[in-house]
Amino acid sequence: MGIIETNVWLQNNSSPKEICKHLEGEFPKMRPNNMYRLLQQHGMYRDSRQTKRDIESLVSESIWSKVTAIFQRYQRLWKGPDIPVYIFPMNAGGLFNQSLDTKSGLAFRDKLFLFVRPGISLKELTAVFIHEYHHVCRVACVKQNENDFTLLDRMVMEGLAEHAVMTYLGKEYLAKWTSLYSDEQSKHYWEKYLKEDIQLKRNERKHDQLLLGKSPYPNMLGYSTGYFLVKQKNDLTVKKTFAVSSEDFILGAKGTDLG
After folding, report:
1. Are 128 and 105 in contact (CB under 8 A)?
2. Which residue from 22, 175, 192, 205 lies 20 to 30 Å from 6 (Cα-Cα)?
3. pLDDT (tens digit per residue) in 76-90
4. How many angstroms separate the CA atoms of 38 and 33, rounded?
């Protein structure tokens, strides 16, 4: 499938309601309003005059061509699935949302969404693609129903995706949540908040509270601890990260360095 020409959709009619009509085949059980709400939670734009300017900028910056080249490279390198990739402007924010992030994404087993802002560098664009496409490749390799993923599975998946970013691009392009806490803090949080609940499923309320670090838990708790757990594994190549068991990253598991 490769990169879908969402640039054409956006230039013809950037209304989110119209855009979501193009996506009905990807979300057959979801109403357009719910579809848009899901995508918006992960960074998709709101319709505005600023959005129209962002679309023009992204087109002039050849974002769709750049992502095509990135996709071709990593699909070949990782022997990954051929999936549709949808690119949309990222929510530009307003007076009370002046985020410095220039990209976000959302991955499924059979599709991938990227949300980006004008001015994004090629390496930042590559970083968000590596992270999201790594999810796609890992889900394809573990052959596990996503509804059966545990909190540990999700933590490790996020950590492994950033491990891939670190491998190809270096520390500068890691997500901010990878360095929120020191190793000592992460060990403490693992013991205090996580290790007794790693088998939680996504349909259990506490799962997202721990993964995202919603109050009263530390911000991005599961994500940041997932990267910490992955860092403890020695000699972990990107090729290994697609199929390695999540249980191998439990602190104290055989082959895991506690530091």
Report:
1. yes
2. 175
3. 999 999 999 999 999
4. 9
